[in-house]
Design a protein that fits this description.
Helices cover about 50% and strands about 0% of the residues. The chain has helices at about 1-10, 25-30, 35-50, 75-85. Keywords: FAD, Flavoprotein.
């Protein structure tokens, strides 16, 4: 239900400035102007500051370079386990 609310708000041009960690990827995805320039800028900045992606990976919908392929996994813990080669 919350994901649908984020999508509806984005269609009307409204944005959410704060969301629970579970929904932060959805909120960041709503800011889609110019092919997600805000997300790309934030990820590039994160890569410069934290090249190993150890400081709050995926927080705020900003994923480190080594975990971006797992961005769309529903559970961030599962994404980290997939990266480490472990099963759920």
């Amino acid at each position: 239900m919350y994901r649908q609310m984020v999508q509806t708000a984005a269609e009307h041009g409204w944005g959410d400035y704060r969301a629970a960690p579970t929904f932060q990827d959805d909120v960041m995805g709503a800011y889609s102007y110019n092919n997600h320039i805000l997300r790309r800028f934030n990820e590039q900045l994160k890569d410069c500051i934290d090249p190993n992606g150890i400081l709050a990976p995926s927080r705020g919908g900003i994923w480190p370079k080594n975990l971006r392929d797992e961005r769309f996994v529903n559970n961030k813990r599962d994404a980290l386990r997939m990266k480490e080669g472990k099963e759920k």
